[in-house]
Amino acid sequence: MSTLVITDLRANVLTEDGPKEILKGVNLTIKPGEIHAIMGPNGSGKSTLAYAIAGHPKYEITSGSVTLDGVELSELSVDERAKAGLYLAMQYPVEVPGVSVSNFLRTAKTALDGEAPKVRTWVKDVEKALANLQLDKSFAARSVNEGFSGGEKKRHEIAQLQLLNPKAAILDETDSGLDIDALKVVAEGVNQYAAAGDKAVALITHYTRILRYIEPTYVHVFVGGQIVESGGKELGEKLEAEGYEQYVSAIANA
Ligand code: ADP
Ligand code: MG
Ligand code: MG
């Protein structure tokens, strides 16, 4: 089972001018089999939420907690959080020059499982994940994210998601910069992962269009470092029509 519980989470981004509070008390519970869309305007702190949960060194949790199946993540290293079952697909995936996709995936899988995957099944699994994301076989030999198009970066993040098969996934703007065909492929890749039925998925996005292809269990509006409204997928439709303006001004006037 995979339950992600975020309680009163406050976090700072560490800037050159010192720490700056971005997350101002986030509460969210994602139960097994649920997909939660977290939607908000630029600069509202969505990526900060993702990075704080994943343990990025530029972000510090100042109070509150994040647990995955009862394990407190905030006290763990990045690697330990991944071992506990957390995966973050980053908004801006980083380049790893000189490391092939194939070696990168194998190293990640080995680190997570504590033993190397069996060569025969692993090669097939990699081919399948790449095919699912409509990436050519030759893609496995390329350096991670080096010279990848925006779409290839996102497809690779989701191929990785399928192979590592974590309990919980935070997908940060996995839809951004994709044309409609790539969006469908990436959405289908996420749906294939989530089809196991016991995953906790947070789908962070700026736009509602991905929700046409990935059906969220709940939709949350994220503004000013907080969830300000929650609802079903009809809330996504309302945002599509009305935008975030009313929520932004409500915060500004509070
Ligand atoms: P979102 O993902 O919703 O667009 P972010 O989490 O990226 O929002 O950013 C939240 C806020 O934190 C923004 O106001 C942004 O300017 C600020 N921020 C993020 N990183 C830094 C940084 N390194 N230095 C200063 N401010 C930062
Ligand atoms: Mg942004
Ligand atoms: Mg962001």
From TrEMBL:
Pfam families on file: ABC_tran
All residue ranges annotated as the ABC transporter domain in the record: 4-248
Organism: Tessaracoccus oleiagri
Descriptive protein name: Fe-S cluster assembly ATP-binding protein
One of the record's GO molecular function terms: ATP hydrolysis activity
Signal peptide: none
PROSITE patterns linked: ABC_TRANSPORTER_2 (PS50893)
Top-rank taxon: Bacteria
InterPro entries, A to Z: AAA+_ATPase, ABC_transporter-like_ATP-bd, FeS-cluster_ATPase_SufC, P-loop_NTPase
Keywords recorded for this protein, A-Z: ATP-binding, Nucleotide-binding
Family from the record: Belongs to the ABC transporter superfamily. Ycf16 family.
PANTHER family linked to this entry: ABC TRANSPORTER I FAMILY MEMBER 6, CHLOROPLASTIC (PTHR43204:SF1)
